[in-house]
């Protein structure tokens, strides 16, 4: 009724539009990466890193924290877990916006096609963050913000198309399905 048309004129007058996802690309050079084996989730001393170590490392990389453990750094003395390898070039693509699950599946399928070409990567990751203050996290349960509003999952896909799925939620949230 009248209320709807008033709202419509308000939105058009203020030029409020659907936000298109924002895409940014960056190249990380000489990046220290953990060595992973798809069948070793716990990692093996001197052979591969665990899923937890990878998750922590990924958090540091995505937040652009230095990995060189300098004692003079006030921000972080974090260093890449052992064993690790230096990758000459790593590509980081960030897409920010409201993205439907079908698009995420499409992205994952496209990323898997990357291994069809003669590339040197042994694995790749796709991390999906929900908004920290999202009203719903998993299933149909309310999302408790509390401290950090954790609400994310991460795919690690290997060259043989094995994959790991890691999920993180806040303390008071329902576990993912």
UniProtKB/TrEMBL annotation:
Pfam family membership, one: Ribonuc_P_40
GO biological process: endonucleolytic cleavage in ITS1 to separate SSU-rRNA from 5.8S rRNA and LSU-rRNA from tricistronic rRNA transcript (SSU-rRNA, 5.8S rRNA, LSU-rRNA); tRNA 5'-leader removal
GO cellular component terms given for this protein: multimeric ribonuclease P complex; ribonuclease MRP complex
MF terms in GO: ribonuclease MRP activity; ribonuclease P activity
Name of the protein described by the UniProt record: Ribonuclease P protein subunit p40
Organism this protein belongs to: Chlamydotis macqueenii
